[in-house]
Amino acid sequence: MSENQLEANMQSTKERRYFSQGMMFFGTIIVVVTMVVVISMLGDIGEKLSLFSYAFMKRALVASISIGVMGGTVGVLMLLKNMVFYGEAIAHSSFAGASLAILLNINPFGLVLSFGIASAFGIGYVNNKQLLKNDVIIGIIFTFTMALAIIFTSYFINYETNIESYIFGNVLLTTRENVIVIFVATVGITVTIFILRRPLHYIMFSEEMARVAGIPVKIYNYLFLILASLVITVSLKALGAILVFAMLITPAAAAYQWTFRFERLLILSIMFGVLSSITGLIMSTLFEWGSGATIVFMSTMIFLISFAISPKRRSKTNVSSLCRFCSKYVSEDEWEVCSEDCFGFGGKTHLHDQDDNIYLVSGNSTKEEGECDDHG
Amino acid sequence: MIMDDISRQVANLPDHAPRGNPIITMKNVVVAYGDQVALWNINLDILEGEYLGIIGPNGSGKTTLFKVILGLKAMNNGSIQILGQSLHGDAGNLLKGASWKDKIAYVPQRFTIDRNFPARVWDIVRMGRAPSHKVFSRFTREDKEQVMRCLEVVGMENFSNRPIGHLSGGQQQKVLIAKALAKEPDILLLDEPTSALDFKIAQDLIDLLGRLHEKEKLTIIEINHNLRLLRDNCERLVILNKTIEWIGDPNDPKADEKINEIFFHQ
Ligand SMILES: Nc1ncnc2c1ncn2[C@@H]1O[C@H](COP(=O)(O)OP(=O)(O)OP(=O)(O)O)[C@@H](O)[C@H]1O
Ligand SMILES: [Mg+2]
Asked: What DSSP state is assigned to residue A62?
């Protein structure tokens, strides 16, 4: 085989690999959508779906898609920073803010946000000083704000206030203003993170090296905390303090199963968030399940499917069976050239791809050596 | 001139030692963690284009010395000037973004990378290039070529698409060295760069650093526990034990005496 042919061969293998990845990705979507359709066959679809022509349904759709987008973006950062439980602490302190606002009979948004940011900064500060482990301070703040919320509610004269909507939330009850706030926050947060994605990636790789590179790490960290509190507080009424957490962690965790690239990770996470919002909302209308709960349910399904057929896990099982001579992991989208650093294969330079084909390279020629998947 | 002569005498400098301008000047630097002093009264001029070796027992403050130069750790006392800019007591100035940070690269001592961290070797080396942290600039063809060249320099070009977490410790160390080189720094700080490398690759790396130092006039400061490897390249050797115990020509027999004294007769 000439060099050109080799090049072409590599190209075609690359395409094949892209194709198989794409297939798997769309496979996930198709499985989810089919599930929705099949299950919905059981109900009276047409009548129920006609609900979507109502304004409140449209608002719910915009709100939940937006939450899917911003939850997906911020969730990736939380996951990579090992700060997933920050989200939980922030959500619960926002809840305390909401109950105080109801007690004082004022518009809750300001208080909810400031409680969220205050607790985020509290955790961030202690984290910066490295005095305590993260989960210790998160646990303290989480329970303290929960206690505060309960104390505030004990002053409620009329318990029939809508405090429960902050615990469980209801995306179907989002008001026009609420949708606008959610939408604006989504655009702002997502654009900010996409602009700052490279320094953020650097910081997540190593804060110390990021500081040496001249990145103002502290500022980025506090910015991140503000963005995280914002996501949680604006979506609190729609999803509730308990479920909002899922929109941060689950789509990101599902996306994490698919790729080693940061940008792809962000995009996939957003896609999964949006997908679970749409399918969740449709299913919740069909079965009259709680909307937030159904969205979370769907995102968990996406996670489970991703986890089960993850290319990462697949590649790990392939490590030892890929080739008799070298236990090389073949990366996502390039060929691997094994040369001196690989024992075996007669010490000869060879190429192999993810489909277990081995090619001998000698000078300019390449010879296919066939499959070797039977050597475990 | 006179000052220069005096400092040369004090530092036991042989004639062949570099005679550049000081690129980093440390005066009376004291660093403590809590009430535990890690560095005591460090006075050191690091000259432009020199290869400085640092050796010392575990916990003698070598890494701390790097951290204080990099602004990662605050000084309790003293002053440091880097490329004419002074570094104040408060671990660097956050907002100003000191410009010397573009000129200095660092390979840390120990580094654990999450197995599933979403970055390929390529992405990590590319972090050495400015657009990776300057928000409104884009990667150019030059960046790409530099990244490829640096991967080749450390012999990791075939690994460029691998997830960084899937490499061995030594391979990761090589990638981090490539990342540091990709920055095209004026000053390169290496904290035990050969600690995870096998002896052949360690020797290759040391040879490579020697060549880089000669060709590119790069100022290199290397911490290493291996005196033999340090002797290959270093023009001056610092023996550190919380304070500078000795500084001079690494091949001077006095260096051995001093090392014996510090390591065996404490
Ligand atoms: N984060 C820290 N908190 C408290 N003390 C520290 C910290 N880092 C270092 N020290 C102390 O400072 C002293 C110097 O540490 P340093 O890491 O600079 O040593 P070193 O010379 O690099 O040692 P090694 O050869 O083991 O790398 C040690 O006594 C250590 O216990
Ligand atoms: Mg050290």
From this structure: H
Mutual orientation of helices A176-195 and A217-256 as an angle, nearest 10°? 100
Ligand 1 centroid to B99 CA: how many Å? 28
DSSP three-state, residue B104: strand
| Single-letter amino acid code for the residue at A246 | A
Q: What is the pTM of this model?
A: 0.81
The C-alpha atoms of residue B97 and residue A299 are separated, in whole angstroms, by 41
Check pLDDT > 50 for residue B28: yes
Return d(Cα B235, Cα B16) in angstroms, integer.
Answer: 8
According to the per-residue pLDDT averaged within each range, which of A97-111, A184-198, B105-119, B126-140 is highest? A184-198
Neighbouring-strand partners of residue B22: B47
- In order of their start, the domains of chain A are 47-309 (1.10.3470.10), 319-371 (no CATH)
Give the one of A204, A215, A333 whose C-beta lies nearest to B133's C-beta: A215
Helix, strand, or coil (residue B24): strand
Q: Output the six-digit token pair for B149.
A: 């060249």
B90 residue type, one letter: D
Question: Residue type at A26?
Answer: F
Of B167, B185, B158, whose CA–CA distance to B119 is shortest? B167
What's the first-to-final CA gap in chain B, in angstroms?
38
Q: Which residues line ligand 1 (CB under 6 A)?
A: B 33, 36, 38, 56, 58-64, 109
Give the whole-angstrom CA distance, residue B194 versus residue A329: 25
CB contact under 8 Å between B162 and A331, yes or no, is yes
At position B266, the amino acid (one-letter code) is: Q
- C-alpha to C-alpha distance for A327 and A196, rounded to whole angstroms: 37
Ligand 1 centre to CA of B81 (Å) is 23
A202 with B132: Cβ contact below 8 A: yes
Q: Is the distance from CB of A286 to CB of A39 less than 8 angstroms?
A: yes
What is the band of A24 on the pLDDT scale with cuts at 50, 70, 90? low
CA B46 to chain centre: 12
Report H helices in B70-222.
121-126, 141-153, 169-182, 199-216
Burial of A336 (0-12, 13-18, 19+ CB in 10 A): buried
The label of the residue with tokens 């075609």 reads A12
